[in-house]
Amino acid sequence: DSASIKPVTCDPDMLLKNGKLEDAGVSKYWDTWGGEVGLDIVTGYGGSGNALKAFKRPHLSHGPAQIIDMDCINAGERLAFQAKIKFESSGATAVCNPYTWGSDRCSDFFMYTY
Could you give the C-alpha distances from 30 to 6, 58, 76, 100, 106, in angstroms and in order? Predict the structure, then answer.
């Protein structure tokens, strides 16, 4: 019958899709960076909401990933990423170091564009 094209609308507060994991038990839009990494939805910080758990990381830098929605980004703009991250080793909370390639390295969050 008919076809139409509409401009893409964007929400600058939602550059990550499902960033708050608002759909309980659903990791929709989240991907992984590296090998056999798995993702689970777990109870969020302070016992409320939802959080993303990465496991089976074959390399220290492997972890969660997501495509950034670039519809709201202009050339030359800088982005800041903020999250509460808990690092565990053998089921116990552990300190991680983002500035090393040693066994205490934090998992990377890989953000990319299409």
Answer: 26, 18, 25, 25, 18
Average pLDDT, rounded, for the chain: 82
Residues 32/63, Cβ–Cβ less than 8 Å: yes
Residue 109 DSSP code: P
pLDDT tens digits, 96-109: 888 888 877 887 78
Tens digits of residue pLDDT in 48-98 = 888 888 888 888 778 888 888 788 888 888 888 888 888 887 888 888 888
52 and 45 Cβ atoms separated by less than 8 Å:
no
CB of 70 closer than 8 Å to CB of 23:
no
| Residue 16 DSSP code | S
Coil, strand or helix: which one is 85?
A: coil
CA quadruple 68, 70, 71, 74: dihedral sign? positive
